Every structure is written in structure tokens, then in C-alpha cells.
Amino acid sequence: MVISNTRSNGEVKYNLDQVRAAYWEAIDAVKRCCSPDGVKASGSLTGHQQVWARDSMITALGVRHLTDPLIQRALAASVSNLILGQAPTGAIPNYVNGPTGPPNFRAYADGSLWWLIGSVLLAPDRGAARKVLRWCEHQDVDNSGLISMQEASDWQDLFCTRGKGLYLNCLYLLALRAAAKLFESSDREEHDLCLQRAARVTERLNRMFWYRGNADMLPHFSHSFSTVDNLWQDSLGRPRWIPTKKRLVDQQYYLPYLGFRAVGEWFDSLGNLLAILAGVADQDKTNIILDFISRHGLDTWPVRSLTPAVRPSDSDWREYYSSINQPHLYHNGGAWPFIGGFYIAALVKSGRYEAADRALGKLAELNLRGEFNEWHHGETGAAMGVRNQAWSAGMFLFAFECVRTRQMELIS
Known about the structure:
Layout: H1 16-33, E1 34-35, E2 38-39, E3 51-52, H2 53-63, H3 69-84, E4 95-96, H4 111-122, H5 126-138, E5 164-165, H6 166-183, H7 188-208, E6 210-211, H8 218-221, E7 253-254, E8 257-259, E9 262-263, E10 267-268, H9 269-277, H10 283-295, E11 306-307, H11 321-324, H12 337-349, H13 353-370, H14 390-405
Antiparallel strand pairs: 1-2, 3-4, 5-8, 6-7, 8-9, 10-11
Helix pairs in contact: 1-13, 1-14, 2-3, 2-4, 2-14, 3-4, 4-6, 5-6, 6-7, 6-9, 9-10, 9-12, 12-13, 12-14, 13-14
């Protein structure tokens, strides 16, 4: 690939030398993560040495078109070794320690979905994909069309997201579309079923998760009622308890999760960005979300994971947060470069090209300063995690390609 010093329209919106340096450093960082067992989450000796489903497949979004044989062999090994650990239920492991190590399923919720998306792009396996789809069906525990998860079971594996998660179900939608593509020529029944489910997920996310800024929590809460003939009273005529909106009362956005008599109130950056990229959000909602991110300064270090940070006085605070998830740290408002890549992709998808140019420059600076760190302090931007993180590098390359081509393609 040739990286030009000028934009096609003659306008320079970022430090091209810095972006060029970050591009090549990102490729080197991914190479440091490559092993015979697959793409490790980190290429640092003190980092995450396992092949994680979500990390490796997110990395694949940005590097699948590179011709480097080391990277391509590692991507193929990631897909195949994760299949070796597939559970009898169909679930893909959270991570594997090589082809012979025991698979880990602790943070189980999104690994199968990322594997399905990545495998369709890299090395399609219809048999394993069918098992994943059947496993996902069984995560729709209330026949709502949406899948549910235990607490702290997705990428935020030390956080209170639970029940029906926004990020998880946007990812489910993308996985269903990837599966439809996989079965398009071989199994029209499976293809059509995947698209039908995808349409239902889209409808339910917009109906149940989009908060309209009007303090009305009933639409986001009623899914936990056993009887729905009267939304304001139960079957015995007793008034129902409806929570009061306490955070971001006058804002519009997709809520982060819907649990049993509990609703997350913070703005989940990755979930809302995936809603844009997956086509859940229409143009009006897309503009509202992107304006929210800019207005609240989530793009200062692209991008902070959430706002407002959860604090000890909040119902979603957990005692275990005190060790790593203090406000503006880690999952609780830390800045994650890989999310920054999805942010730039969403800007490109929405046609905000100049904003995408500027964000790419900011992400290049952050990644170079932190050596493609896992995460940074949400307020200061200080590198706080592990260097040479595969998905930080991979998503920079994905963002770079989106900006270069003025196109965004996740599953094609």
C-alpha cells in the first residue's frame, strides 16, 4: 500500500507523517502478536499471551487484506484453534492456550459471535458456524429475539453489563448477517432464517433500547413484566414499580443493557457505535449518537468507553471495581484505542469525512505514544495497560483503510 502525502481533495486534516508512522508501527505490532497458535492478544512478554476470540477476530478486520504470510498464517491458526476448543453446546471459547491447552469460557458471551464474523471473512466453516448459531438460539432465553448474558461476560469482563446487552446484540446482528452470507449459495433456508432473525434484532433494539430523552423508562423496563395486559398495574391490580431516570435524563441514545428490573443508564460507546455500523441506527439516530460523543468529549482520546463513569453511590457499582475500575479507568470510562477504530469507521459510514480525518490523526498520536496500548486513562490519556495490543493495532489499520477509501465494510 502507498500512503500519499496529500489528500485527493487537496486538504490535509491530520499529521500525515504521524499517520504514516502509525500505519507501519501497527503492522509491526500485529506481527509481534503472531504465533504458530494464532494472533495473541498482546505481543508483549508481560501481556495477554493467549489467543482470544474477540481480540484476534477484531484484529482480523484491519489486517485480513495484508499479504504478509506471518500475519495470514496466524489469522488462519486463530480460527482453527478456536474451533478445536468449541464446546459441545456450540460455544466458541473466550480464549485458547494453543491447540492442546484447555479452552477458557469465562467471559463467554461475545467470543462465538466474533469468531463467526471472522471465520466467514477468513476461513468459512459451515459446520462450526451452524453449531454457533444453534448455541446463540439458546441464549434467547425469553423468546424475545435478543440474546442474554450473565454479568461481566462480554468484552467488559469486569463490569456490570448483564441481561440483554446493547453491544452483544448489535454484534449478534452482524454475526447473523455474516452467517447469511456464508449460507447464501449452499442453504437458502438457513440464509433466510438468519436474515429474519437479524431483522427482528434490529426492530427490538430500536424499540427497547433507544432512550428518547423524555424520562420515560417504561419502554425499557416492561420486558421484565410477567404480564403485559396492563403496563401500569400487575395482574392483582397493584401499581408497578418503575425506576426514575437519574443519569443523562435529557439525552437520546441506546441504553447499555436491560436487566431484570434494572436498566443501565450510562452511554456505552462501543455499543452505540456498533448500532451505527450494523445499521440499527438510522441517519437521524446516527447523527444524535455522533454528536453526543463529540459534545461529551468522548473523542478527546478516541474513544472513552462510557460516560458518565459509574461511582460508588450508583446502583451499578461493584466492590471489585475498586481494584481497577475506578472512574475513568479500564472499563469504567478508560480510553480504548480499538474503540477509536470503530468510531472512525462510524464517522466514515455517516459521511463525516473531515471528522474521520481528524480522529485518525488523534488515534495515530495516541497509539504511537502508548505503543499500541490496550487502554489509556480516560481524562489524562496516559497509557495504563499492556503495549503491543493486537486489536489496538488492527483497528487502527481498519480505521486507516476506512479513511483512505471513504468506505466502511465490516463483513464483506
